[in-house]
Design brief:
DHBP synthase, alpha/beta, ten-stranded mixed beta sheet
Length: 204
């Protein structure tokens, strides 16, 4: 298999051909890397179990580590997670779209990490695909995440169907991850957003 490079030109969001091809591949169960404001993600249709299994295998990631769901709009979050705490709403209002992954606990006790990326290409792709998109960072487990299409191809040429090339990422660093706990939250991984930045909003 040869990995296709789908390059965006001009108005990225208005580039129907590249985005349309990438979105159809995603919806049909293919794996498509795409840019966010942090790093490139390996996109997979969360409703296709065989694709999710393949994603674990390609990344070399333990099955005990779930993947984050990327959404294009706030409206999609309630359906994914159920009731959201006041702290969750405050963090979403302050940092979404943006480089913050929030881990929610669903009513059944299961957890899910969700991110609304601050990248128009990523959001347009997710909308066009019409499915929940898992998008862990584009790297082998334990290695540095890719911040350009070229870096994705260096690692995954022949292993995934396509890379949507939106140029280098803005931050070149992974998102910050927090877990909602009761009426507050706990830091899981500090990334683009610092503890101090989060605390300035959460305590306000």
């Amino acid at each position: 298999m040869k990995t296709r490079l789908l390059k965006l030109t001009g108005d990225a969001v208005g580039d129907g051909e590249a985005l349309g091809r990438a979105a159809k591949l995603l919806a049909d169960g293919a794996m498509v890397a795409f840019p966010t404001e942090t790093v490139y993600g390996l996109g997979a249709n969360a409703k296709r179990p065989e694709t999710v299994e393949r994603l674990y295998r390609i990344k070399g990631r333990p099955r005990s580590k779930p993947f984050t769901v990327h959404v294009a709009d706030l409206d999609a979050v309630d359906e994914l997670v159920g009731p959201i705490s006041e702290m969750g709403r405050r963090l979403m209002a302050s940092f979404w779209p943006g480089p913050l992954t929030i881990i929610f606990t669903r009513p059944d006790g299961s957890t899910v990490g969700v991110r609304l990326p601050d990248n128009e290409v990523a959001r347009a792709l997710i909308r066009k695909a019409g499915c929940p998109v898992l998008a862990p960072s584009a790297n082998l487990s334990g290695e540095n995440p890719a911040t350009s299409a070229k870096e994705v191809l260096t690692t995954f040429q022949g292993s995934i169907e396509a890379v949507l090339d939106g140029g280098p990422t803005r931050f070149g660093q992974s998102s910050t991850v927090v877990r909602l706990v009761g009426d507050g939250y706990e830091m899981v991984r500090e990334g683009v957003l610092s503890v101090e930045r989060l605390d300035s909003v959460s305590s306000g």
